[in-house]
Design brief:
about 180 residues; mainly alpha; D-Maltodextrin-Binding Protein, domain 2; 2 domains; two-stranded antiparallel sheet; two-stranded parallel sheet; 4 strands; globular
Amino acid sequence: MLKRAGWILGMAGLLLCCMTLTAEVQAAPKGKLIIFHAASLTFMVQNGDLDYAWSYRSLALQHKLKFISLDDNINLANVAHDAFYHQARVRVSGEKPGTFIHRIGQFVAYGIAMPKNAPNREAAEAFLAYLLNPEGGQKILRQYGQPPFDPPFVPTRAMHQKLSKSIQPRVVVKE
């Protein structure tokens, strides 16, 4: 089972007091189709070859598919619920064949960075400024199912000081 899907099922089981939910889904009847590549799932749903798929909200929006939003308690998107997310565990394949490891659920977010040795620092800063602009990149991210942090933040004052003067006003410090 995919890591994030397993975490979400585990948390749903906790909320619904159904501790066997993940096992029941994993033990799907023979003949059921399980596909692991999101692009394949999207294409098959669009063609009517699948009734539904488990995928990211952003993919559904980008491909104009109907979707059901998961509650903040289980969608892995709300940092305030991270302690609850940690209760979910899923067993995944290890590095060597026949081995397994357990992964613990956690808050999931995307970050951005600019390399210290960016070959074109000016262009990189311009791109970040656009990406962090509420009417520019942030609007596009929201439109396609990737809601940005509002306001964007960095974890330390030292990191904030390293940002260019044009980017600093768009970013806050959350220690």
